[in-house]
Design goal:
Elements lengths: L1 E5 L6 H10 L3 E6 L2 H10 L2 E4 L5 H11 L3 E4 L11 H25 L4 E7 L22 H18 L5 E7 L1 E3 L10 H7 L5 E2 L5 E2 L1 E3 H10 L6 E5 L5 E2 H11 L7 E2 L1 H7 L2 H8 L7 H7 L13
Parallel strand pairs: 1-2, 1-4, 2-3, 4-5, 5-6, 6-11, 7-10, 8-13
Antiparallel strand pairs: 9-12
Helix pairs in contact: 1-7, 3-4, 4-5
């Protein structure tokens, strides 16, 4: 198929483009950077040097690509998660406005399917693991609520559109090469410096997915039934379990423990929500529908 990938030089974009090309698809990768363009060309993709915020340029790229499927992996995330508050407004603008340009152009150009990056870790609170019927935690702490509203708006746009098939890939937290959660990633550096504590009892449950497994699942999404899917591994785990294991994996000291009150005073409501209130996601639908087979988390395999 002719596939256009927006955000093609990002953490998931590069392994996704490589997987699509390996399967024989003709891929156009959208990127704004020189380094991204070189990397995509080296993978064998056609490169479109385009900002998603430039609607006219997006239209030209879409027509040239003759895209049957459009994959929206647009993000503007910082290299270090500690700078997320500074990047949040730009990230939201790119996803909503840039993604809006991309989606409208896909409709106008007759693409048959639109695949959207979505979230499998900002689920509405509730018991156990959430399935795809769960909405986003739009009433959470301030910044998390903003993220949740963004993802809810993206899903509504893509899954509610007429004339084009919509797929929402609700990814877990990415780990592996090129992500924050890797031996060379920014979160590993935080852990090694003792800057990533367990808050309270550490009961917040995080859902994860290896970046390469996410790429394979997204390539599969070219042909699966439309709808939302949790693209998470089999190991949703509370912070009290995964964080000490991750610290050992990256060669860091045991993470410190702080009380909820201490965390509220030093890091704020959002840090407490991440540490104590996140809800894990079930991957049963993806497994049953298209045989999603994620690997076990690397650090949970480390004794």
């Amino acid at each position: 198929m002719n596939v256009l990938v927006a955000g093609a030089s990002g953490a998931i974009g590069r392994p996704l483009v490589a997987e699509l090309i390996r399967r024989g698809h003709m891929v156009t990768g959208m990127t704004r950077s020189d380094a991204g363009a070189k990397a995509l060309a080296a993978l064998g993709a056609t490169v479109a040097r385009v900002s998603a915020l430039d609607a006219d340029a997006v239209g030209r790229a879409m027509k040239e690509a003759r895209a049957e499927v459009v994959i929206d992996e647009l993000t503007a995330l910082p290299a270090d998660p500690s700078r997320m508050s500074d990047a949040a407004a730009g990230d939201r603008k790119l996803r909503l406005e840039g993604g809006g340009n991309l989606h409208r152009t896909a409709l106008a150009c007759g693409a048959r399917r639109y695949i959207q990056q979505a979230s499998g870790f900002f689920l509405r609170p509730g018991p156990g693991l959430g399935d795809e019927s769960e909405g986003m935690a739009v009433d959470a702490s301030p910044r998390i609520a903003d993220h949740a509203r963004t993802y809810a708006e993206l899903e509504s746009r893509v899954l509610g559109a007429e004339g084009i098939e919509g797929v929402a890939m609700r990814y877990g937290f990415f780990y592996g090469p090129g992500t924050w959660y890797h031996q060379e990633g920014a979160s590993a550096d935080q852990v090694r410096r003792g800057e990533f504590p367990i808050i309270g009892d550490g009961e917040g449950v995080w859902s994860w997915v290896h970046i390469d497994d996410a790429a394979v699942a997204t390539a599969d999404a070219l042909t699966i039934p439309p709808g939302a899917y949790h693209i998470v591994d089999d190991d949703p785990s509370p912070v009290a379990l995964w964080l000490p294991a991750f610290a050992r994996f990256v060669g860091g000291p045991p993470p410190p423990h702080v009380t909820v009150e201490q965390a509220l005073a030093s890091a704020g409501e959002d840090a407490v929500y991440y540490g104590t209130k996140l809800r894990g996601a079930s991957n049963a639908k993806a497994k049953e529908t298209f045989g999603f087979l994620p690997r076990r988390q690397e650090w949970l395999r480390t004794p």
